[in-house]
Structure formats: structure tokens, C-alpha cells
Amino acid sequence: MRRPLLLFLFLQCFIISVLVYLDPIGLGSAVLPKGRLPEEAGNICTVEGVVSEVSVKKGYAAVILKTGREKVLLRLNVTGQDAMVYDLAGRRASATGRLEIPDGRRNPGCFDYRLYLKGKRIFTVMEVSKYRLAAGPVAKPLTHVLSVLKGRFYESVRPYMDEGSFQITAGLLFGETSLMDKDLYEQFRLNGISHILAVSGLHVGLLYAIITKLLGKKRSWCSSAAVFALLFIYAALSNFSVSVLRASFMICLHVLSVHLDRCYDLVCAATLAACVFLLINPWQLFDTGFQLSFAAAYSMGIALPWAVSKGVELSDRFKKRWILYAFDIFSPCVMVQLGMTPLIMFHYTTFSPISMLLNPLAVLLAGLLLPSGLACFLVSLILRGIPLIGAAGIAQGFAKMLQLLSAAGEYIGGSSYCAAPPFASLIIYYFLFFWFFSETRRVLRRRRKHPALLTIFSGMVAAGCIFPYAAGLTESMIPWRYDTHPVTFVDVGQGDCIHFCIDGFNILVDGGGNSYGNIAKDRLRPYLLKNGISSVDLAIYTHEDADHALGLMQLEELMPVKQTLHLGQANSDCGILMIESSGVKVLLMSDADIEREQRLCERYGETLACDVLKVGHHGSRFSTSEELLACAAPRFAVISCGKNNMYGHPSDRVVELLADSGIIYARTDECGAVYLRGISEDFLEFRNAAKDRSWHIQRIRQTQNTPPGP
Fold it and tell me: How much is the pTM?
């Protein structure tokens, strides 16, 4: 089958996937499960099925229970009992708990957990105590045996390796990056070599090379069947990650092409794999692993031949063989990095030019660690004692080298966090990237078909601008413009954070914060960078409580904050602000109590009139009086509070008061971040980050505009 036809089929699957995601004509419902589980979300119920996958996370175990067409993610609290967890795979099991629809996108542009799980055909999650999970007989023997062997490998090898080396080995062998220390993984990711720690096409290619070396050059159907079986076992051990399946599928096509005496084309194989995967589950298109895996495959198939031909040309011109050798070593890494870097910047907001130098060495070390790690795995199944210690020592040596390589990259520097590219510019980049390296462009250029080249170039740029806007994936047809909104009530859990963008001037009022995490690293920096903001012009601290100030303090250590303004020390003297953005008045009550509100109303009266009210103290019963609502007369209110917070915010009194006063309100614990999307003379449109809720608010003209002071 020729490339154009396969690429056309891939384009059709791509369009279908986008339509499923947007669901304008009900296509999304066609691929959703037909069973009862989504309808029972929010209720306590019992689910039964077969455990298809198990992985150990920090503080819990992720158990995927397959019930017919549906999959349920069970978060099982079994810390420190890894071996018992791996024994669950392949067994029939039942669990009782509250079934929930997973959270969608919590802040604009940030990670969408619900969409990520849909890529794995998981539509519901359940928090389960180990006492509410009943495991039965084994229904899938192979899945069960492989999972148990992996658990025993971890248990037997861990004592003979230092923790860092064990984590790197587990990540490289089976993609268990959840076992890694957060700072260690962040170091690898920032240096652009974290793909070594997540099982990918590189690992499958190395494994295939090892298998073919062991089997010899002579090929038969028996040896090919052995290759297929070993690839399936490795895919099962790595929990069938999309990159492993993609690489395994393409290798199987290559093996079949040899037996059928057909020409193997990498681009055709990748396109056929993409079509098959998207037809099985269209949601995979939005999975980061799917995108990066196929970006790497297409870069190798389309861009690498051009680089190789340039290497041959330069080597012949200067009659230097070392030029060809240098191209053979570095061109695969360079071409793959050129193909993957924009996606990495978009998803992870990191830019690592040093990865061009680190990746060849990282791949070399991975090629040594993978067979030694697999040998260690096999030894742990058969032998113990000195053979296992020796095998673990060899694997640890190569893991240490990888760790030192990453540390060297950090020491040299050059890698950093950066603003994510706008979505439309990302599309245009890939159109032009693959067009530049395509055979069609080179043929047209040799034939001097300049009008055709210009037409195709213009068409690609126009399509890159129009398609994302028409599909609703961006709010502007200008490719370099971000979807930054005048006012955003950022979801920082139990705390306050309001972002104002006034004529390109970025203001953060408070930044949330808690004692058990770094809110700036986990939420504020990703939100800002994903929306094209690499520095904050003004950070305002309304007072010093941790749930308001700590996030801003942490943010100052991570990115430039040009100016800061401290308004108060405690709740009793917290800063109260009236800020106008794009003609919309927003009254921010911070943590002011009812007594403070009364003094404010007595002083300012109707000049407190606003379009939007940020409800005081997260909706506490000690804030938000009838007098304040009468003076401010807002048409829309936002309650910033954490999901299932220990304080019970917001109080029933405040919620009922807002409803009785005819004020439409939104809660960040229920709908995530809330932002002002549209402004007209008579109406305001608000939307949440997941884009599944919106509010159209009729504006009331105010005659007095004097804002209150702090």
C-alpha cells in the first residue's frame, strides 16, 4: 500500500478523533462504554471484573479492573505491600467504594486527567480500602504470572542496589517511573533524556536487536513466532504502553515483510499502526505518549533519510569518512529531537538544547543497561545469592553512569523551563517540518515549480491557523497568540489565586499554598507557562496566611516576579481589592470576616458595586453578609476552595445566601479554575477550565466607580 493512501487514511482517523473529542454530532457517545458504571458515578457500589494491569505509585497502587467494555481505575491504599499488589493482576476481583468521574482539566491549558484516562479507555475511578477489595481465582494466567514475576524481581533485586540505581533500572526496564524519586526524574526530564526511563520504541528496538542477535541471521516462521511472543511478553511487562505497542506493531510488520518478500517502509508502517490504534480507541490521539511516539517514528522515517543523504554528500565532497560516521551517530538524535522538541515544550514546558549532546551517550548506556537489566531479571527468577548480586552490580554500574550523565547535564546547564508554544504555531511547525523533508518538496524544487511550492506553503500556514480555531482548540486564528483571559480564578486547591492580565501586564493576587506540597511547582508554574507567561509583573500578597502567600513565595524561587506588594499580615487586616480588567470590576474579599465587611460597607457603601465578587474566606460561615451583597450587588460570585477540604468550605449559609440573592456562583472545588471568556456591553461569559460549564451573566450598569483601598 502506497504512502499517499495510508496518509489519507491516517488523516481520516485524525479527523474522526478530533470530532469524537469535540463531540459536535454525538460521535463521542458512540465510543463511550454502553454499561452501567458512568451512570452510577457518585454512588457507593460494587464493581466486578478481571484485573488487567497493576502498578505501584507513591502512596497507593493503581489497579485497573476490566468489566466488559469498561475499565475502572482502583486507587488501592496498600503502601509497602508491593508483592501482594502484583499478585492481583489477572485475577477476578470485586471492589466496593464510591465511583467517581475523574477530574478534567483543572486550570486552563494544563493537564487533563480525564482525557488522559480516556486514552486508556478508563472512564471511572474508585478509592478503595484494601479491606474492600476481594481477589478471586486467576482468570488470565499469563498476565498473572508475568506480574508476579515482576513483583518478585523488584523485591529480590532492591536489597542489592542503591535506591537511585534501582529506580533507574525499574524505569528503563518496565517503565515504572512512578517508583522514582521526584527530583531525580525531574532532572532527567529537564535534560531531555527522560525517554530513557519510560519504555518506548527505543527499548523495543534494542530488545529486537538483542533477540535477532541471539537467534542469528537465519529467519524462519518459528524464529519469527519467538520474536512475536517475546515482544508480547515485554509489552505485558511494561503494561502495554502505547509507545511499546507502536514499536512492537511496526517490528511485526517488518518481520512479516521479510517472510512475504515485500518492501518495508517505516512511514507506511507507522501510519498503518496509527490508523489501527485510532480506530480501536480515538481518544489515544490526545495521549502525550501517543503523540511523542509517532512524532519520533515519523521524524525517523521522513527527516532522517534527508540527513543521511546530506552526510554522504558532504563526505564525498570533502573526501572525509569521519563526516559520514559523525552523521550516522548524531543525525538520528538530532532529527528525532527536532521532531519531538516542540511537543515536549508544549506538554512539559521544558527546553533542553543540551539533550542533543546527551542523547547519544544516554542511548549508548541504555543499550548496555537494558540487556544487563534483563539478565538480572532472568537471574532473579532462577538463582539467588552470588549470581544475583553480580548481575545487580553490573546493572547498577550502568544505572550509575546514566545518573552521572544526567547530573553532568544539570551541571553544564542550558536546559530550562519555558513558555509552551501556542497550539496553532505547533500545528504550523509540524506541517512545515514534514513538508520540508518530504520527497514531494524536493522534486518540485528540482523542477523549479516555485508557484506550486508557494501555494502549498501558504495552504499549510492557512490550515494551521484556521483548523485549530474552527475546531475550538484555540480562541484565535493568530498562531503566536495565547488564549490568555482578562481574569482567571486559578484552582490552587484550598486557597486563593487570581490572575489578571491587563494590557499584557500580568498580576497575581495571592498564590495558594499548603504544607504538604509545592503549589508553585505543581500548579502555578505549569499554569503560567502553558499560557505563555514566563514572568509575573506584580504579585500581591493580601496577607501572610499560607493558603494565600506560600504559593507566591515558592513561585519567586522558580520564575521572575518583578514586583511584590504586601497588604496585610493576618485575616484581621487582610487586603481587600477592587481591580478593573477590560471594563469588568472584580471585588476580592480575601479572608475578611463579617465585622470587616460591615466597616467596609459603612465607609464605601454603593461604591463597592462590582460585576464579580470573590467570596471572602473560601465561603466560610464567618464571612459574606447580606449587607455586603447589597452594597456590592454582584451578578456573579466565585468561591475559591479545595475539593473535599477539611474545613467544610463553603458553608451552607453562604451558598443559600447567594442563591436567595439571585447571584450566580461558581466553585473551584467543583469546576476547577473559572475564567472570563467573553465581554460585551450587556453580558459577561465565564467558563471553567474543562470547558464543560459556562455562565452567561447580564451586566448591571454602575454609576459610581470609586474602588476601596486596602
Answer: 0.89
